[in-house]
Design goal:
Layout lengths: L1 H43 L6 H17 L1 H12 L4 H19 L5 H4 L2 H31 L5 H30 L3 H7 L1 H5 L1 H13 L5 H8 L7 H8 L1 H18 L6 H9 L4 H29 L1 H23 L4 H17 L4 H6 L7 H18 L1 H12 L3 H19 L14 H4 L13
Helix pairs in contact: 1-2, 1-4, 1-6, 1-7, 1-10, 2-6, 2-19, 2-20, 3-6, 3-19, 4-6, 4-10, 6-7, 6-19, 7-15, 13-19, 13-21, 15-16, 15-17, 16-17, 16-21
Length: 451
């Protein structure tokens, strides 16, 4: 008994390490693009548009990848529910890494003309497909391996890869702009180095993800031959309302989150407030560290007071923060920027840490990969896809940031309402044997089927 318990504990630790490392690598790749957009891509690839239009087009390229996340989610969800979680994790990691490294090798507009932005956008599409498929597999590996009483904590591990990826991306960019290739050297060649570093990170991530066991829930599905032939069809026919609620919940987190991860705050503070770009990148990296901590706390807290209540606290914090951060940043003080990002991280973490556990407990086992992946991908489109573009457009039209705060608050309120309609099913048996209970009672409007 003791030996079995020890084996389970060791395996859970390997899964935790694999999900954190793997998602960190994936999101480093994704966020390094947003940093480059804020600092250099408008001139390197979108030069003909010029000025603020070029910056808008550059930010729009961030949103483009989100439009292809559902495709990645559909593909990974379909095959993840049929051939397993681990296989899809490895495939998405390799796809993301290859696209990122190739961006680092791309000629600029000055070198090959219009082909440069076209190739850049194609590679960004591949990043979007990978990101759309990666998240569902990572969270299910973490949550389905976890102790039912600690799913919030276990599910926060893959979530931690996002702030860690942002911290790593911002830190590497700060190193390039401030130490290795300052000034003109960064625009010439320095921006390429962070993209090419992805090759090393992908090798590490691949090795780690290959070392963990398949999810026990999927092993049971495979052994009992319970795979659904068309999981996405079943999902959209029977559980479309859960997908919609899940998407709105994530949109409430994602729209504020992409002010930093989408590069808008980096661009706003460096270009509009004329703050030093290296200092700003360091501040964003430190803000990501705060986000890491609050995400972990959010996951742990959801095991204590429930997923929904933790979310509600987080959304209230976000609704307040969106009206505070811009006046604080507008002081032009780097110290106040640190304060703004720290305040912002509280709501972001509390609405991000519990997400994996909440989503996993919403959907039946046979369509769970499809359910969590598609909800996440659609929420990313509704919330984060064009949040930097919308924020920039509001700023250009009004010449102040209050309208941005109003826009973000509206999305946060929608997220609050959506999560309040979901029934907290903390600790529910996630195995295929319990699919009948999993298939009912996920919202406050549904009757809970008793066994």
């Amino acid at each position: 008994m003791t030996s079995t318990a020890t084996t389970h504990t060791a395996n859970r630790r390997r899964v935790a390490a694999a999900t954190i490392i793997g998602t960190t690598v994936e999101w480093y790749d994704f966020f390094i693009y947003a940093n480059a957009v804020a600092l250099v891509f408008n001139k390197q690839f979108f030069d003909p548009a010029g000025g603020s239009v070029g910056q808008l087009v550059a930010f729009a390229s961030i949103g483009l990848s989100f439009l292809f996340r559902p495709l990645g989610a559909f593909l990974a969800g379909h095959y993840g529910d049929k051939i397993g979680r681990r296989a899809m994790l490895v495939i998405t990691l390799l796809l993301m890494g290859a696209a990122t490294a190739l961006i680092g090798l791309l000629p600029t507009y000055a070198q090959i003309g219009i082909a440069a932005p076209i190739l850049l956008l194609l590679l960004r599409v591949l990043q979007g497909i990978s990101a759309g498929g990666e998240w569902g597999g990572a969270v299910l590996m973490a949550v389905e391996h976890a102790d039912p009483k600690k799913r919030g904590l276990a599910g926060s591990f893959p979530q931690l890869g996002v702030p860690l990826g942002m911290l790593l991306a911002s830190g590497v960019m700060a190193l390039m702009t401030g130490v290795i290739s300052p000034g003109a050297a960064f625009a010439e060649w320095g921006w390429r180095v962070p993209f090419l570093l992805s090759i090393v990170l992908i090798l590490v991530g691949y090795w780690v993800r290959r070392s963990v066991d398949e999810s026990p829930v999927f092993q049971e599905i495979a052994e009992t031959k319970s795979q659904t032939k068309a999981p996405i069809v079943v999902l959209l026919k029977k559980y479309w309302y859960l997908v919609l609620l899940g998407a709105l919940v994530f949109a409430g987190n994602n729209a504020p989150g992409y002010m930093t991860t989408g590069g808008f705050i980096t661009k706003y503070t460096t270009k509009d407030l004329h703050m030093d770009q290296t200092q700003v990148l360091v501040a964003v990296a430190v803000g990501s560290a705060f986000w890491f901590i609050t995400t972990l706390v959010g996951g742990i807290l959801s095991d204590k007071i429930g997923r929904v209540r933790t979310y509600q606290i987080g959304f209230v914090c976000s609704a307040i923060a969106v009206f505070l951060i811009f006046p604080i940043m507008n002081t032009g003080s780097i110290g106040m920027l640190y304060l703004a990002l720290a305040l912002f991280s509280v709501g972001l973490g509390f609405t991000y840490g519990p997400q994996a556990a909440l989503y996993s407990e919403m959907f039946p086992a046979s369509v769970r990969f499809s359910g969590v992946s598609i909800s996440y991908a659609l929420g990313a489109i509704l919330g984060g896809a064009f949040a930097p573009l919308i924020a920039q457009a509001i700023l250009d039209a009004t010449h102040n940031t209050f309208g941005i705060s109003v826009y973000l608050c509206i999305v946060v309120v929608l997220g609050f309402v959506a999560v309040s309609l979901i029934r907290d099913r903390q600790g529910i048996d996630l195995s295929i044997r319990n699919e009948e209970e999993q298939a009912s009672g996920a919202t406050v409007f549904e009757k809970v089927e008793s066994k």
